[in-house]
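To whoever is covering the structure queue this week,

Two jobs came back overnight. Logging them here so there's a record in the thread.

Job A:
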Amino acid sequence: MLVAGVTIVFAASVGLAIVGITAVLMLGSLLAAKFQPTPVRATARARNDRATAGQREPRIWNDGRGTIIDL
């Protein structure tokens, strides 16, 4: 009877440890996702906003590593 009681206590403590570790990992994942930078859309100026009519329109895009501006 004593062995059964010790086994139940051991199983319960291992279960609580697993639940605690899972909760800490989920909380860390939630906080890490919260602090990710939000993407900002890069846009070129409209044609009529440019200084001279001879300028070509700049190309702006994001390749995942950073914003590229081709003037």
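Job B:
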Amino acid sequence: MQIRKAHFTNFRCLSDVEVSFDRVTTLIGPNGVGKSTVLHGLNWFFNGPSVEKISADDCTRGNTAEPISVTVEFSNMTKTDRDHIGLTLMDNQTELKLRRERRSDGQERMFFESSILPQFALIRRAGPAMEKRNAYKKLREENPSWNLPSANSAVEVENAMRAFELANPGKLAPAEIEVRMDIFGFDGSAPMSGVFDYVLVAADMRASDEVVDRKTSVIGRIVERAVDRTAADQELQAIAEAMHEQQDEVFAKHFTGQFEKLSTELTNAVQEYVDDRSVVVRRLQQPSIGAPKVQFEVDVADSELHTSVSRQGHGLQRTLLIAALQLLARHGSGGPSGTICLAIEEPELYQHPVQAKAFGRVLRSLAEDPDQRFEIMYATHSPHFISAANFSEVRRLTRRVRTGDDLGPTVEVRSTTLSKLKTALEGVVKESVIESQMGSVAMHRLPDALFASGVILVEGTTDRAVIEGVSERGGQKSVFVSGIVVAEVSSKGNLPLPRAILHELGIPVFTVFDGDHGVAHRMIKVGRSDQDIENAAAAECAMNRKLLTLLGAAAEDWPKSQVFETFAVLEDTLETFLEGAWPEWREQADMIAGSGLGDPRKNELLYLDASKYAAGEPPELLLDILERTRDMMKK
């Protein structure tokens, strides 16, 4: 059993957002778009206000007139799941939908979507058992052909109705049925406890606070479920009772006679003044000695040295916390068939890159092992938690400004699949290339671009260096400050696939490519054959036409240098363009190379410095590329 889909309404920034889930789901996107809100919304849905407190302040833009609602759809439900849940489910039902809502008065309710006979709805909504029985009896009398059995209790009424529904699926209609609020939980009494348990590792959860042996801490909850104290408690209580008996024996032996003598002496002394009173000296009632509770502590052992968790590095503390929560979920599970959903906010927190990669692979192995029954979800800013082989698991959240109303931005969730990319690139990139390169292109060419607010897609590293350098000149706004990533793909022919991936994920992408009009001249200079020159020119023309068509422009063999709304093309190459439009750039590059500070050949560091420090003004075309990209990000 796993989460297939969740729908959030009126919850913080998620006014009306639906998110689909896989066995492993990675939520990415800029800051403030709602990645963590998804995880916390699910935490409230599963674990309630005692764990995830919400209030009227959590309504989207203060809309307290509408309820906060989270709906979760489950899939892959087995017979064991159905039997354990106990809800009125069809025999072959594999999907389940539940909805939790919080109304403006603070009341929370949970609903279960089922197929029921409409005539039974009034009976189910009836209050006391007597009302249910009377309503059922009336319906039974009005419909004798249904052959409904008699029922003497509310339970028998429900069983009779459900048996009829199971036998007559064609008469049923979808409806919501209210269910008990504690349907989830770790205590084993809730219907879905052990069938599906949700554990959130929040970014601000402190490991040192959670390893203290108290009931509310993670380690305390683990100890309560994993450690059987019964036998020890009985033995300790026996010791306490024996000690109490021994205390009585010692008192009787040493104090009884002395207290009696002292009582007589005091009585005699008092009766010299008051003859109708006596004095008794006796032992005060001793407080009962209860069995001491065994306290636990968690230390970290490094060879022979034991140190407290608070003295460990942040990375190890974070790892310990996640491992402890994983263990807690396992011990809270009601049986071997239950699923544990481990949701981690910023799993890369305090992890160095190698450890983060290992962390991601271990968690993925848990999710992919059918015997473990784990579902994993992340809200992350790290590519280490994205799998190249499973890129379709990525969900990117973005904010879009809505025009024509004053309701503010809305959150969108985007993802991509092989089929979507094949459709987008039909006739441009071979399907076999898309199948073999989708994941690797995303991970190796776009690791930072996936997390950007906008992307400028270029052919090579020197193109990237020039654009980044121009953006960092005085009076300009750096691409890094703007949330823009300049991503290189190594050649013009590689542009379509990464562009399509970014576009499908909803990331604004501006494409820059060379027209390579001077390819023949360059090949003549190095002595290439006429046939080679002809073939190269034909290939460049074909690629230019293909890219222009893909980008929505008129196809032509040799386009002139020009900036369009979503792309720019250079007539030949960036170097030839700069030499003509910004001669000071070439002078600065030659000066840097002549000083021994850079390789005079294509060198991204040299190009970066030359673009940052060259005299004169950068060409308008380069500034326009930056401005157009920022404009795309505002839409």
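Note for Job B: Residues 417-634 form one domain.

Please reply-all if you pick these up so we don't duplicate work.
Q.
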